[in-house]
Amino acid sequence: MSPEAPRYRAGVSTRPGSTETGPFTLAQRKRQLVATELTEASLKLFALKGFDAVTVDEIASASGVSKRTFFRYFASKEDVVVQFLAGMGSDIRAALAARPAAERPSEALLHAVSVPLTTCGDHAERALPVVRLILRTPALLARFLEHQARWREELTEELAVRLGRDPGTDLYPRLAAGMALTAFDAVLRRWSEGGGAEEPGALVGRAFAVLAPSLDSTGA
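The chain above was modelled as a monomer; its predicted structure follows.
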């Protein structure tokens, strides 16, 4: 069995061997191990042959499971890759909710967006090839952008609650969420294009230094 892939797969907690409500049951642990094996096999095949050339049958065969079993865990081969990073949005929202209420919007959003980017940097050997694959494959990029659109809605809601504003009548929560996620996307692309030479945490700090005046003046 391949070692467990780091973070950012739907349904997998940040704490090994646990769920959000307690320790994994044997059945849950087995499901996690199968999902990990499918992910590992997929990423190896994609790196070897290219994403478009790999079939679901090949992934299932390499994992020692049936095609039917593959579809119990993933809706498509695109989901195998994109779900590797899909937990980022919930991490950003949770991190924002945990920030001090009196903190400036730019500071709170910087800390929130830094959480998944720092995790990517800490696991660069594993995360960087996945990020590159997503950004360089049109089908995967389209799916990843769908995730980001959902994150924007969630972050808008969290900002509205935090600031006591109505996102239906106040433009600020949605604009601020959009700016924060634009910074996230720019940093992820810069990190990928640079081969991981620059730390994502440092890059996002520079991005928010540009955004801070607008975020704070509008959010006052």
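Confidence is low (pLDDT under 50) at residues 1-21.
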